[in-house]
Predict the structure.
Amino acid sequence: MQGRGNSKFQETWTRLKKNKVAFASLFILLILFLIAVFADLIAPYSYSEQNLTNILQKPSSEHWFGTDQYGRDIFSRVIYGSRISLSVGFVAVGVALLAGGILGAIAGFYGGRVDNVIMRCMDILLSIPSVLLALAIVAAFGTSIINLMIATGISTVPSYARLIRAEILSIKDQEYIEAARAVGTNDFIIITKHIIPNCLAPILVQATFGVATAILTVAGLSFVGLGLQPPIPEWGSMLSDVRAYIRGYAYMMVPPAVAIAITVFCLNSLGDGLRDALDPKLRN
Amino acid sequence: MENSTILEIKDLSVSYTSSNKEIKAVRGLDLAIRQGETLGLVGETGAGKTTTALSVLRILPEVSSSIKSGEIMFEGRDILTLSRKEMREIRGRDIAMIFQDPMTSLDPVMTVGRQIEEMISLHTDCDKKELRSRAEAMLEVVGIRKDRFDDYPHQFSGGMKQRVGIAIALSCNPKLLIADEPTTALDVTIQAQVLNLMNQLKEKYRTAMILITHDLGVVAEICSSVAIMYAGQIVEYGSIEQIYGNHMHPYTEGLFDSIPDIEEEKSELKVIDGLPPDPSALPAGCSFSPRCPYATDRCGESCPDDVQVEPGHIVKCILAGKK
């Protein structure tokens, strides 16, 4: 017999711990989070402090990653940049998941005409190229951080709606849903307490991949100049700024690029690990 | 025994729609059940047993099925005319259901204790402490130690899961319990345990019960009356003695004949020839006539009326009482 209270969460956690890469990724992501939260304490300089007598410095003990064309400390800017990148990534996915989740849940659970209307709207949204849509939104409403989050989130709403709808379609005919109905629960409780916990696994996996994609989209938007306005540091816009200096000062490109790469890699391998850990067929 | 009728189904017809064909799952079914009575609903797969049960709770799939006609009177109120909210209050509190497959009828990501609590919290206003103690008490009633309260369904065996299902169904002390093949998914020894338990609890709580099964042995063990269903209709209804001792309908006869006799040496089981009719294209007249060994020309002409052969014993066959 298994131990008491051996919940699905604990089971998943033990299996995730066995997957070294995924567990290391989780650890690195946690560190990145802490860096983002405590950026004020960690960064040695302000992200916007210019020092025009000290521009384009090579990495040194004073400026670990060197300075940029305005003499700003690149290390500090990468640290502060994590705030924007991570928050935009997670909030964008959160928004998309919430909107897509609610729409997909309603469509899947009620079926029929409601389903048709919602899913055809999602198809329309899906037919617009996502980067183009994000560009249009940011161009139309301006480049605030909120708009950036919405722009990156909205184009992924249909994929969450589809995923959740498909999950709900397969779960709602299970006997335990019928049983829940037979004890007199209403639709809201059935969806929130029985259906959603049961389809959480694939959603969680999709969401971790989604955060990585969102970070890349934001970086891409910033790179083409539709991200956040200077002097706010963001990894993508930092890369974009370096373009002009890439021949003589290529080292400036490395820190933000590596930061993006590490974050995205960790999110992807964590997603992979979660998928394996949550898949009942791989349990042993 | 009190004789007040608790549930009365009158002329119930339920149809499913599938690719524009109407599938008549239940056709003009009449059934009554008194307080404390246990009714066995027996029939082949697809005879409409489960559909009848789901109609009583009004949890038929909304998109594909519809109740064409009939009344379901529960304690004098027609269930079919109640609002959704009134219906939700009846489900679980007054009418509870035990499902066929305990492996799939419990939510895999919720502890069994929480699942019992959910039922109780929906129909009473207990505080958290009382909720837990009542749910724990229910677990013990069905013979599961209360320290298994925080375990998940996958940590239980099939028989224990079915007992959890029984605990959930009985936790609000319902007046009517519908058990849809509660022992089909269990092996024989566990079957006996579960049946005994249901029998004891039924006596203890004085609950009326509809037991849906295709196992005549199970019916003999715990039912007081039996209804035999064929192609959406009740073809024979009577007390357990009447059905087991003096069954009249050719279909009932076929069912009893198909039970192998341990005394007899036979290499082949006796079966009823043919297959149950396609519910989207039912034969004219008596739906059993194409398979009936006694069928006459008259059987194909019109649907036979119910014939009362003795008090409480009803047979839907033109030959009833004449053989």
